Amino acid sequence: MFKTILIALDGSPVSFRALEMGMEMAKKFDSKIVATSIVNVDNLPVNVGVDYMPDLVHDVKKQNNQILRTAERQLVNSKMFYEIVSREGDPKSLIAKVIPDNINADLIIMGKTGKGMMTKIFMGSVARYVSENSELPVLLVN
């Protein structure tokens, strides 16, 4: 039923629950998992100052890599067929359309809520955007 499952991670506990659920579904349907985490450098605070921006971008990328390494450890231990995808840009469009099109995804799984309430207030929920704009089924995990 689902050949390729895209799982979006942001480092929050609920995103790792989405990974666990995706792994269960992948076992059931013999699916490939594609785990992704997006570096959104456009969303960094502008009041940091130009001098500190390269360090901040480096820290965000480092945190993103850590999220994906944590996911990969779980996937390696499960002996499932998987791929890790890291991208930079707008997580809404990348998760809803771009990455699913590139990997021929059949399903998107992600956490219902992410890391930051302030981000949600100012940018809107990525999960909501994806669920409303993706052409694929979207499973939101609490």
TrEMBL record:
This is UspA domain-containing protein. SUPFAM superfamilies: Adenine nucleotide alpha hydrolases-like. Residues 1-141 form the UspA domain. InterPro entries: Rossmann-like_a/b/a_fold, Universal_stress_UspA, UspA. The lineage of its organism: Bacteria, Bacillati, Bacillota, Bacilli, Lactobacillales. It holds the Pfam family Usp. CDD domains: USP-like (cd00293). Belongs to the universal stress protein A family. PANTHER family: STRESS RESPONSE PROTEIN NHAX (PTHR46268), UNIVERSAL STRESS PROTEIN UP12 (PTHR46268:SF6).
